[in-house]
């Protein structure tokens, strides 16, 4: 057997709250999804005005980042024409996302989940996802015995 | 043009909080999804221990209840062998749910969204969905000027 | 965070070997799939002569048993016409299996994975899945310090 | 009628064992899939730590290599912008893989199956797939009367 550590529902709330605060600062309503380390959805929020096309994209960015243990913008770089992973963006029925905005959540070197953000530019999405992770990292440092 | 009234993200929080409280009372961790009146996902939560097979089921129950303006258990009755809607459970790639636990959210006679719950028995799922709606109705009465 | 225990690749080998031995006894070549507790595929084997239509069915039985923490034949009973979960067999794009042959793998009361078997009658499939679990349980007792 | 020669379950074990040994050497846990000449899955293994996003990708690489009788990296070259097979990577619901790591298994000039590997870089995936084929070829030479 293997023992795994993963995000719980309270962690997902913290990640979403951090992302929402950043999205509010940017004045861009976002779709935000949190997956566990197995790529399974834990929580989702579409802010008022978030794009309905972004729901699935946010969920799939979180799935990709958690499952592949890689930021989606890294896939963006290596899936360009001529690059080694060209074509990967159509894989898994199109669920493998190579557009920025999906980040793995890492603790002690292990991927324990993923966050995916969509509705802004890829740079905005990535910034909002990072803000979610920053909020989560702060919450861990404030409650080290958790 | 048509003007539509629908649930917003804060309403979704209220619905989920009411459902979570009931699920805690039942000691059954649930997947809970909220859709707007167009059947589009607003919010989702998988409580710690909620079944991963229930994520899609909860989302599709909310989608069905909001979009078809009907409780999913009502579809359960009319989709039995020999009944008029027999076979409807396979429609929309299997997204049309006929198992109890999906309820439309209604205000002034209009469907403004849907809630879908899954992980318990269909009766438990329905009870938890109703608790979400009850919490939402209380929040409206307490804030009549909204 | 949550800490989870799940099947590893060596456990999957043990489960498959136990199932294959029973399938050989029955002289029915089977498709056998092992998922982790999150419903993600770990291992699959189609024995020579196993049905190609059974590959997806075996994988989805393992997914259902692991993810829903329930034997697929239990869903068979509660999804009959007039029963509470009628219609659930079309859920998740048809991945939720209600035909016997999918069993959760349980240790210390926790579901740590699932096994799915297909190609025989549902009773044969279930018998072969159980033989896989029996082999796994024996392996744990023989190596308690693992 | 046509008589077909294809990989059997024991061959699949040999292919996977060869691939796993190479993956261990590279210290990259991999997902490895073996299909028969009809593109149908025979065997699959996700090594401990293999990416869950790579399960479907490995299966689809094996499917593509066996069914199209071509290495997936060859499709990578001819599906670049401006090249003759541009766009093929979205075909078959995204199952046609153009990223390296899928190789046909050939005997006496006939394709008798395929191996697909995913979780590393495309070069690592391809190297591991080749190691599986090498092990299979050695096993044939050692048992010429098979």
From TrEMBL, chains A, B, C, D:
This is Heme-binding protein. Gene3D superfamilies: Haem-degrading domain. Transmembrane segments: none annotated. InterPro entries: GlcG_carb_metab_protein, PduO/GlcC-like, PduO/GlcC-like_sf. It comes from the Bacteria. PANTHER family: PROTEIN GLCG, SLR1406 PROTEIN. Pfam families: HbpS-like.
């Amino acid at each position: 057997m293997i023992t795994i550590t993963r995000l719980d529902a309270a962690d997902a709330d913290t990640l979403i709250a951090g992302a929402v605060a950043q999205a509010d600062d940017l004045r861009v309503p976002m779709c935000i999804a949190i997956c566990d380390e197995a790529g399974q959805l834990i929580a989702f929020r579409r802010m008022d005005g978030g794009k309905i096309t972004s729901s699935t994209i946010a969920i799939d960015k979180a799935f990709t980042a958690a499952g592949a243990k890689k930021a989606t913008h890294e896939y963006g770089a290596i899936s360009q024409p001529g690059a080694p992973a060209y074509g990967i963006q159509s894989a898994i029925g199109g669920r493998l996302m190579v557009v920025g905005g999906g980040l793995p959540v890492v603790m002690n070197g292990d991927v324990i989940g993923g966050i995916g953000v969509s509705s802004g530019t890829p740079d905005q999405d990535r910034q909002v996802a990072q803000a979610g992770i920053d909020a989560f990292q702060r919450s861990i440092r404030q409650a080290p015995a958790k």
